[in-house]
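User: hey, got a sec? need Nuclear transport factor 2 family protein folded
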Amino acid sequence: MKKIAVIFLLINGLCFSQQNQEIEKPIRTLFFAMKTADSVVLKSVFAENAIMQTVTKEGIVKNNDIQGFVSSVSKFAKGDLDEKIIIEAVHTDGNLATVFTPYSFYFKGKLLHCGANSFQLVKQNNDWKIQYIIDTRRKENCSEIK
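Assistant: Yep! Here you go:
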């Protein structure tokens, strides 16, 4: 009986790990596309009506235009933009996922700011897409993420 329980736990763990990898894929692709200044790949990770926002130090929520973001990234040289993340939490329910990622943002190799991203993803046509991103940004108390 113990062997069956162990096998069940291992299989269950592998399934959850694979599901998390699928959910994390558009997030990791987003930051790869930023680093390589690839606007086509960058645009592909977002759902059609995606929303991007930032919470300022004063607690004001600012809206950011996805198309403007994609366009601005394409104007940089490869390697200029590098956002390094740690995926701390992935929560799912059916076709909805939430992912929380502290980050450090580097511009031309220099740490510029840090904060956290909160992603909402939706599964559409068997692909996970980013529907919503909200982040914080600060210049103090930043720990470098390697």
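Quick note: The first strand starts at residue 46 and ends at 55. Let me know if you need anything else on Nuclear transport factor 2 family protein.
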